[in-house]
Amino acid sequence: MRRISLTLGAVRLTATLKETPTADAVWAALPLQARAQTWGEEVYFSVPVNAKLEADARDVMQPGEIAFWCEGSAIAIGFGRTPASTGNEIRLVAPVNVWATTSDDVKQLKSLKAGAAITIEKV
Question: What distance in Å separates the CA atoms of residue 28 and residue 6, rounded to the nearest whole number?
Answer without folding.
Answer: 15
